Amino acid sequence: GIRDYKVDWSSDVCSSDLASQLQPLLRGRRSPPPCSVLPNAYDPGRFHPGPRPPVLLQRYGLGPQTPLLFSLTRLSVADRPKRIERLIEAMPELRRLHPDLRLLIGGDGDDRPRLQELVTRLGLAGAVLLPGRLADDELADHFRLATVFALPSSKEGFGIVFLEALGCGCPVLGGNRDGTADPLDRKSTRL
User: Fold this and answer.
1) Angle, CA 117 vertex, CA 113 and CA 118 arms, to 5°
2) Whole-prediction pTM value?
């Protein structure tokens, strides 16, 4: 676990995503600067498998077997590379295949009105839920509520939300060109 990881604090410490970005720049240098890669981590005492919480099923009007696609991120104009609108745009086709499917996007920010307008324009009110910022003490329960966690980001720095989802036993969908790749770069995490 993370407690067993030894870090050489005399060197620079960086995430694995940053280390992979720096690697081509440092190639060929006689003595590249020392760098300890600190792997991404989450709290397994908090993010662990469990049943779908009845209080959240009721809050969102979901049945015990209702399939739920869940995403969690800041809904900021500056974070549009996280491409949350792609999940919303995919819902009409996904609902043709799975009519009961719901999409819940946790998070808040100045881009939320645009996303809500897209939901309305596509006729997805009731199928796509944008409840705003989720209480920190309910995050693990939201991962347990989900059938699948998805974040189609091309700009994820650390991908900790993917680790938290996996820790709760939730399958995940993500990209492979940013920090998302690190927590998903194990055969045991691939669908």
Assistant:
1) 120
2) 0.78
For residue 157, the model assigns a pLDDT of 63
Cα–Cα distance, 68 to 66 (Å, whole number)? 6
**Residue 35: how many other CB atoms lie within 10 Å:** 16
What is the three-state SS of 18-69? Answer: HHHHHHHHHCCCCCCCCEEECCCCCCCCCCCCCCCCHHHHHHCCCCCCCCEE
* pLDDT value at residue 1: 42
Instruction: Return d(Cα 156, Cα 174) in angstroms, integer.
Output: 10
pLDDT under 70: residue ranges of the chain: 1-40, 156-158, 175-191
Q: Kindly report, residue by residue over 123-156, the tens digit of the pLDDT.
A: 999 999 999 999 999 999 999 999 999 988 777 6
